[in-house]
Amino acid sequence: MDEKFDIGARLNAMRVAAGLSQRQLAERAGVPHAQISNVETNKVSPSVSTLRKILNGLGVGMGDFFEPERSPPKGPFFSAHELVDLTSKVATSPIAGGDGKLIFRQIGDARAHNLQILHEIYGPHADTGETRLQHASSEGGYVVEGELEVTVGDDVRVLKAGEAYLFDSRVPHRFRNLSDRQTIVISACSPPYL
């Protein structure tokens, strides 16, 4: 995936293959009809949470959307280049000059083990989006480097290196790097949701 991934073209192809109109997909995903059109024509770059909502309307996970031909290595050991890059080409809107990039790299085949382990890198001012994430899983993570603001329901806390989180993912949540430095997190989720 050296060249820029065309989110709009990929979404359009998957929607057409599913036999859905833009309006039907918007209804299934619970997003405005215009949002589907704007993403497909690359007029907007969706946040991770918005793209996840749209893909849920198609019944497709993020991993399958970005790397449909991938075949995760079996393990039990994995070198750095064997991690599955799920979202390195997705960027949220830059805030205060930050690059807003999120990189999620998965260890092995999450579905085969019913456990998703991610190496997450949040660029300066990266944000999973104003639309909070919500899915039927449990997830936890450990901040290895930097600081990460974690919002779970009404609880908000900025976690520093060495601190961690664990919660029911059905509670709406959001992750943000408010700093000018990158943040690195190791997280786990069961069952997998990306």
Automatic annotation (TrEMBL):
Residues in HTH cro/C1-type domain copies: 11-65
Alphabetic keyword roster: DNA-binding
Short name of any one Pfam family annotated for the protein: HTH_3
Keyword DNA-binding belongs to the record: yes
InterPro entries: Cro/C1-type_HTH, Cupin_2, Lambda_DNA-bd_dom_sf, RmlC-like_jellyroll, RmlC_Cupin_sf, TransReg_Diox_bact_type
Domain of life: Bacteria
GO molecular function terms listed in the Swiss-Prot or TrEMBL record: DNA binding; DNA-binding transcription factor activity
Statement: the UniProt record of this protein carries the keyword Chloroplast: no
Protein name (database record): Transcriptional regulator, XRE family with cupin sensor
The organism of origin for this protein: Neorhizobium galegae bv. orientalis str. HAMBI 540
